[in-house]
Amino acid sequence: MVVRLGLVREEMRSEKDPLAVHIFVSRRSYRHVHHTKSGKRRDTFPRLSWQSACELGFRGNLGEWERPLEAVPKK
């Protein structure tokens, strides 16, 4: 997972708005994370993607980052 986020991070830096790309990719990835019995995977992903977002200029806290990840788009 760390390697994958690193590759995505490098790709995002080449875009015009890397934070917007990161938000889009993170929301899509979060929806596809498989649940585990302990829930660790679902808890770890937002923290890792939040750290990457902070490197790209996001200034909110972890709670503010988790809200958009958990939002379900209307179909």
What does this protein structure show overall?
Helix content is 68%, strand content 0%. With 75 residues, the protein is mainly α. It has one domain (2-70). The N and C termini lie far apart (28 Å).
Overall 3D form: globular
- Work out the strand percent: under 5%
Mean of residue pLDDT? 77
Quaternary assembly: single chain
**Strand element count:** 0
| Integer count of domains | 1
Report on the biggest sheet.
none
Question: Which runs of at least 5 residues are low in confidence (pLDDT < 50)?
Answer: none
In DSSP terms, counting alpha (H) and pi (I) runs of 4 or more, how many helices? 4
Helix content: 55-70%
What structural class should be given to the helix and strand makeup? mainly alpha
Query: Secondary-structure element order, as H and E?
Result: HHHH
Q: What is the terminal-to-terminal distance?
A: 28 Å
Radius of gyration, Cα only, in angstroms? 12 Å
Question: Could you write a compact summary of the structure shown?
Answer:
It contains 4 helices and no strands.
